[in-house]
Amino acid sequence: MKRRKNRCTGFPSPADDYKKANLSLDDLLIQHPTATYFLRMKGNAMLHAGIHDEDVLVVDRSVFPPQYGDIIVAEINREYLVRKYMPEGDAIWLRAAHPDVPSTRISSDAELVVWGVVTVVLHFPV
Question: Which of 12, 32, 49, 117 is the most buried (most CB within 10 A)?
Fold first, then answer.
């Protein structure tokens, strides 16, 4: 028995508008490609901010200066930290989001380098 090809007539599917669209994580997650890098979080210092050990952070170097409450990647005296940026008066505090991890007060003689602001956290549950 021969099968006939099904030739439908009528209206096109509303999904046809989306058929050719590609989904790009670069387009969704990165605003400034030349100033963006990825970093894997180590440790639980930012756990209560939703950043877990081994999460991937999207960090934008072009977001400068950081604003109050931004989560930043910082280098202090050759140590790298992911912390919440909290300037208060003349002091700058880098606050952890875990009760067991102390906050860091940045003194005027400390070498603080801000490597960028965390714009996206990619969490892959195990």
Answer: 117
